Amino acid sequence: MHNYFQHFKLLRKRLFFLIFLFALTRLFFYFNNYSNFSDIGFFELLKILFFGLRFDISALVYANLLFIILHIIPGEFKDSKKYQLFTKTLFVITSSLLLLANLADSEYFKFTKKRSSAYVLDLFGFSGIESDATRQLPEFITQYWYITLTWIILVYIVIKKYRKLDRRKFFYFKMTPKIIIKQSIWFLIISGIFIVFARGGFQLKPLRIINAASYTSPQNIPLILNTPFTIMKTLGSKKLPEKNYFEQNKLDNIYSPLVKYTSNSNFKKDNVIVIILESFSNEYIGAFNKGKGYTPFLDSLIKKSLTFSNAYANGTQSIEALPSVLSGLPALMDNPFITSDYSSNELNSIASLLREYNYETSIFHGLTNGSMGFDNFASVAQIEKYYGRSEYDNEDHYDGRWGIFDEEFSQYTAKELDKTKRPFFSCYMTLSSHNPYTVPENYKDRFTKGEDIHKVISYADFALKRFFETISKMPWYKNTLFVITADHTGPAFDEFHKNKVGRYSVPIIFHHPSDTTLQGLNDYTIVQQTDILPSIMDYLNYPKPLVCFGNSVFDKKSERFAVNYISGIYQIIKDDYSLQFDGEKTISLFDIKTDKLLKNNLIDKRDNTVLKLENKLKAIIQSYNKRMNDNNLTRKKK
To answer: 212: closest CA among 21, 25, 65, 59?
Structure first.
């Protein structure tokens, strides 16, 4: 039996060493994103490191199941040098991948504000979409050299510190039925212990992402988690959980995504162009910050437009923005709709509804074709034509990373739109204000103000100006409704835009060259990306019902709110409050009017407000999950 326990002791030491390295990567994550966690005191950090062990152990056991079994399986064949070499190779490869996930996510977090889900695997082509990460891997390695270097050092440590089998401590004897039975019993006992570790304890349900909310504030949840855990917990998640907070009649009274707008006027066949600006946070826009900003053209356009500054994105990634903006579908699940098992669901979109009135429909994005599945979503949304880097067909204007620079692609978009039969609907997405923040060589000395993100925001704003200068001379321009927003926010510099509310703060602008009623800066009405679809249809006097999780900004009777979801926590922003809900209970309530930095949790002081907002959010979640599961996202479904 001595040999059997020698292998178990080695296993224990090897796994404890890996737990230690996971703690180091958590500290690396913390310091690399210190500005997002600057409010954490020393003792709170110790608490996070301690409780983070629970999630680390769970992830490490799951990821090393084969490695564990190879150590505790009965038999003396484990003593051979070939067997030991195999287990070491397996351990090094597995550990390297796990450590890489944590280190790489310390940079990706700066853009998503959450630990990565199984969606990150789609970036490597696992879902059939273009392998963005694989294609750009060499540049990632170069740009984030300190991540690469840290990873290499940790892998080297893993190899050097891997505890070898000390054969001098072995007793060699013949395996007998009695010894095999004893080892088998210990195998079952030890396996049971590791099952408990993998589950995260003896609780009824295995450890989940949402459990992190029990140990820290929502702002710090990504720090207590680890990336392998969040990937594994969202891997293969095929169906949203059915929520039964309310009976159907009560549910419909509290909230229903089935909306209809009435008008005495006929349908207006104005052209519609939705412009989605990459990473254009409200923080960067001068018109919202007393002139301090990096968007002189957008500032000038805001003066001639109906603009909502108290507006919010429904997600934190570009891949989440398209369904929100074009289909009124917020990102209320771990994986983006485009790469989820619901991606083939029938849904409304601006394009599908306008095609009923013979609109030509298109989408323009200078991104490499196939990236993030945008072209696939265009098909689901019934957008007829997709124009990307391939259609542009001029690599002289390739930015070397993502696609075609904004200025050139915006001019291409303008020329193609001028060829389009009217009326038309089109979505134009920019890309240059994306990491690594590349400005064309001929403009390198022109846009120098601020941080790197500010420089590319200035360039993207300039490209937008050139786009409007070109299309303003075209005959269809004056008969076109423009809706401008951002896909998500960019890196934040002030404290408000780092918190759970400010990280979603983006502009939503309605501009029509021939409609002077669309003017004014509105800084009090809460608006979200999912309001764009119903607002456009209401503006055009669309007479039929539709399904979307938003309301028209032109409907004065509609309730105003915004919803988000991140790291297992739902959020509703309504009236003067932000409420955060873990799917079972409310965990925080903040008065965002008097407490912009979300320092004072009012959960025990506003019972009526908590109940009202929680019921609204529950109704939205219940309706969202059921309709998603039932493929009931259009008015055609019963």
So the answer is: 59
Which CATH superfamily does the domain covering 250-370+399-629 fall into?
A: Alkaline Phosphatase, subunit A (3.40.720.10)
Q: What residue ranges of the chain are covered by domains with CATH 3.40.720.10? A: 250-370+399-629
Please give the average pLDDT of every successive group of 10 residues along the chain, which has 638 residues: 73 92 95 85 92 95 94 81 90 95 90 78 58 66 88 94 64 69 86 91 81 80 91 78 93 93 90 97 96 96 97 94 96 88 85 96 93 84 93 92 94 97 97 90 89 95 98 98 97 92 97 96 96 98 94 94 93 96 94 94 91 97 94 73
The label of the residue with tokens 């620079």 reads 405
* Closest to 486 (Cα-Cα) out of 311, 338, 332: 311
Query: What whole-number distance in Å separates Cα of residue 22 and Cα of residue 597?
Result: 31
- Euclidean distance between CA atoms 68 and 591, whole angstroms: 49
pLDDT tens digit sequence for 476-516: 999 999 999 999 999 999 999 999 999 999 999 999 999 99
- Cβ(309)–Cβ(521) below 8 Å: yes
Beta carbons within 10 angstroms of residue 359's beta carbon = 23
Return the H-helix or E-strand segment holding 312.
strand 311-312
Fill in the DSSP letter of residue 307.
E
Task: For residue 634, give both structure tokens.
Answer: 């259009």
Start-to-end CA distance of the chain, whole Å, equals 65
